Amino acid sequence: MLGLTTKYGSISAVRDVSLSVGEGEVVGLIGPNGAGKTTMLGTIAGLLEPTSGTVRFEGNDVSGYSPDKMLKAGLALVPEHRRIFTDLTVVENLKVGGITVGSAERSSLLDEMADLFPVLREKWDTPAGYLSGGEAQQLAIARALMSKPRLLMMDEPSLGLAPVLVDLVFELIQSLRDQGRTLLIVEQNATRMLQVADRAYVLRSGEMVAEGSGTELLERSDLFDTFVGGTSS
Ligand SMILES: Nc1ncnc2c1ncn2[C@@H]1O[C@H](COP(=O)(O)OP(=O)(O)OP(=O)(O)O)[C@@H](O)[C@H]1O
Ligand SMILES: [Mg+2]
Q: Global pTM?
């Protein structure tokens, strides 16, 4: 993505922000509340239109694509607040996620998700509205994986989860990384994110203030206030 700016009305939520994600890389996007992280992901995923700048994916200019078209192009987003269809069962949610792939491939992807998410396999025919927060987050991620994305973006996957489930989310990110998947992840949990990320970007008030490898940024104690928005835990 090159120099993206996205405005709400006349206010720029992100200003001339550039970031890139290489194939097989796990990249974090961190920063305090209101920094523009969700806006950035929404712009890349086609939910918001940039006022200037381009989104490039695998050499093509995909700026202005609708979210559907982005999904077909290989970019999937797990949005904030894990939006899943609560009236549909777990497996039905997954099938919806796999709507862009053929039916033979869809059933092998379902098997893959059952292996990757044993908790979901146990609740295959349960309406998603009955899932716990942690299960629902896994379902949201699994549903996105059903589209076979070549770039998977997640917005605050650990938000609102109990500590043990936060651990589970980060273990999952680690195993997706081990599978060689390409991930761009927004997290408030900056330290944990930097521990699993190859690289990360730090956004503050709509501007990129730092970038580097996970280990480099972990050593930047001067940035801790920025990472976590004022506290240094
Ligand atoms: N729909 C909207 N209309 C107007 N302003 C918005 C809208 N959504 C976000 N904003 C503003 O844009 C800025 C960036 O918001 P954004 O949600 O992208 O931040 P964020 O980094 O994801 O924050 P958080 O950590 O709270 O999720 C904020 O100042 C926010 O108030
Ligand atoms: Mg956000």
A: 0.92
